[in-house]
Amino acid sequence: MPLNSSKKDSKGRTFKFQAEIQRVLDILINRLYKNREIFLRELISNSADALHRMRIVQFETKDSILDPDIELGIKITFDENENTLTISDTGVGMSYQEIKTNLGTIAQSGTLEFLQQLEESPDAINLIGQFGVGFYSSFIVAKEVVVRSRSYPEDSRGVEWRSDGSGKFSVAYVDKADRGTEVILYLKDDTKEFANRFKLESIVKKYSDFVGFPIRIADDDQIVNRQVPIWYQSDEVTDEEFNEFYRQVSLDWTEPFHRIQLNVDAPIQFRALLFLPKQRSRMMMTSMYQDYGLRLYSKKILVQEKAKDLLPEYLRFVFGVVDSEDLPLNVSREVIQVDRTIRRISKVITGRILDELEKIDEDKYLEWWEQFGVFIKEGISQDEKRRKKLLNQLRVRTSKSEDQLIALTKYVEQMPDVQEEILFLLGESLPILKRSPHLEHYRKVDQEVILFSEPIDSFVVMHVTEFQGKKFKAIDQAEAEPFKDEDKEEEETKEEKEEPEKDPFLTHLKEILEDRIIDIKYTDFLTDSPCRLVNPSGTTAFTRVLKYMDENYVPQKKIMEINPDHSLIINLNSLFEKDPESPLIQICAFQLLENQELAEGSLQDPTDMIKRVNQLMQQALGINRNS
C-alpha cells in the first residue's frame, strides 16, 4: 500500500502509516509487553546492519564520504530526568526518501502471510526480525519515537522522522552534523527502568555481546560487548552464546538444529562457523527469496554481507560466517564470483555440511528432513558432482513404510536378490499414490515401491538413473515388467489373450477413445481395479516436469490397460457381444478413462464427466429422462 500524504506543516510533511504497519504495532505492543526488553536487541541489530553496510561502502567508495575516519560503532545514552533513551550509530544513515520508505512501509514481500503468522504465533519474538519490523518494537516502551539520520554522501542533508505510533508520522529536514542514525525514545511512565545503565548493560550482554562493532553506554569509553569475533574464540564460548550469535546472523530466535565449526590451514586458510536451522521459513521456498548467503570476512573485516557464491543454492538455508586470511580486503563482488580461493572454500564447507548431515542421529535427522528435505532433493537434481553423497541422505516413503521415512540406502538393502531395479511411482499426494492401481501387482508379490509425492521429486528422478548399481524404474511405464519370484509364483496357465487389434471388444473401445489414448490392451498387472493408464517408455518424470513448468501444458495421451478378470470389464464385454451399438458402452469407456485421469490429477475438464455420472445414476435408478 503506498504512503498517503495528508498535510504539510512547518515541521515537514505528515504521512499515514501503511495499514499493515498499524497492525504490526498493535500486535507487538499487546503481545510482547512481557518481553519488552527485546526492543533494544532489535535497534542494536538495525544499527549493526547499518554499520556493516557502511563498511562495504568504504571498501567500494573512497571519495565524497561524510566523516570518512569516524569509528564504526554504537552508542547508547539515557536521561533519567527527561526519561529518554537514545541509540545512535555511525552507519550508512538514511536520506529523506529512505527514512520515509523504510519506517513507513513493510517493503518485504509476504507481508500478509507474515501478519497472519504474527497474529497466530504464541511467540512473536521469533518472527519480528525475519520480516524487518523490529524497529516498531520501540513503541512497546516509548510513547513517542524520533529518528534523526544523515546519509553517508558528503552533500547529504539531515532528516528527522517522528511518530507516536497512532497511525501517522512526520518527516522533515533538520540540521545534523555527523553521519549515521540516532533513535530517540521518549519512554512511557512504566518503562523508566530502561533509563538505567545496569539494566541496559545486562540487555546488551544478553543479546548483543558478539555484535562486531563496539557498543558503549553513556559517555563512558568502555566497550560493553565482547566484540571479538566468536569464530576466533570458540573454546571460550558457551552453547547459549553460540545460539545467541546464530540468532543475530539468522534473525531466527529459536535454537539452531546443528552447529559446524571449521578451522582450515591448508591448502587455504580460513575459519567458518555455520548453523543449520530447525525450521525453514516460508520465504525460503519462494522464487523471490534472495536474502541468503554467508557473511564473508577477510582478516575479521566484513567484505560481503550475503556471499551467495560460498555455497550452492540448494544450501541457501545455511547461516553463518566465513573468515579467510587469504582473501584481499578490497575484493569486489565480481572477483568473488570467480576467485579461486572462494571456489576452494566453497568446496570444503559444502563437503563438510554434507558429511555432518550423515553423522546426525536418524530420529533427529528425520525431524529435520521434514523441513529441509526438499533442499536436498533440489541438490540431487542440480549437483551432479555430489549427487551420490546427496542420495545417501535421501529419505523416502514407500508402499510398505506406512508413512514412515526410510533411507534410500535401506530400501536398496531390503530389495530381494532377484530384484534388479529401484521401483518408484510419482503422484500428486501420498493418499492418491497409496490407492493407485499401479501398486496392485507389487502388493501381490510383496514388493516395495517408493512413493514420490512432491513436485521436486519429478526433477530428482529425471536426473537420477541409478543408485548403488540399481537402475530407477517407474512402475507406470508401458514396458515396466515386475520381477518374477519363482519361489512365490503360482503354477498356473492362462489362455493367451488375443492381440488388441484382433479382439473386437478392444478394437471397439479403442475406436471410442481414439482421440484420448495411444492404445488399449489387456494386462495381468491389475487385481482389484478395472484399468490403469500407463506412460510411453521413459516419459513419466519428463511429462510431470512439463506440467509443473508450463501452466498451459496439455497432458499427453497414455496407454490404457484393462483387467480382463474384473467384473466391470467382463460385464461390459458381455454387453458388447449382445449389443455392440449400446450407448452404455461409450459412457462406461469414457468413465473408466476419466476415473483414472481424475485420480492422477490429469483430468482437464470434469464437465462431461459430471453429466455422464448423472446419466449412469439415472440408468441405475431406472429413471426415464422424459418422465
Compact description:
By secondary structure, the chain is an alpha+beta fold. The protein has 20 helices and 23 strands.
Strand portion, in percent?
Answer: 15-25%
Q: Strands across the major sheet, in which order?
A: 1-2-7-6-5-8-4-3-9
> Can you tell me the residue ranges where pLDDT is under 50 for at least 5 consecutive residues?
1-10, 491-501
- What is the CA–CA distance across the termini? 59 Å
What is the fold-level CATH name, i.e. the topology of the largest domain? Heat Shock Protein 90
Largest sheet: 9 strands, mixed
Number of helices: 20
Helix content: 25-40%
Give me the CATH superfamily of the largest domain. Histidine kinase-like ATPase, C-terminal domain
Return the average pLDDT rounded to an integer.
Answer: 85
Shape: elongated
